[in-house]
Design goal:
flat; 2 strands
């Protein structure tokens, strides 16, 4: 199993726009464990 870390340190809207990337990663690496690192809301 592969571990993939997605770092998106910006507004929640930018994270939503990055969701297609996570879909593509899971399509390419279906066994991978995908983890997101994001800033807390309101920063």
């Amino acid at each position: 199993m592969q571990n993939i870390l997605v770092v998106k340190l910006s507004a929640i809207g930018d994270v939503i726009h990055a969701l297609p990337v996570s879909y593509a990663i899971k399509e390419t690496f279906p066994e991978a464990h995908l983890t997101w690192v994001v800033e807390p809301p309101g920063l």
